[in-house]
Amino acid sequence: MLLPLFCAFVFGFFEFCWAQHCASSVRLALEQAGRAMIITPTLTQTQVQTMVQNQLSSIADANVTVTVSKQTMSYGELATLTATYPHTIGVPGLANFNITYTTTVKTPLPQF
Question: pTM of the entire structure?
Answer without folding.
Answer: 0.83
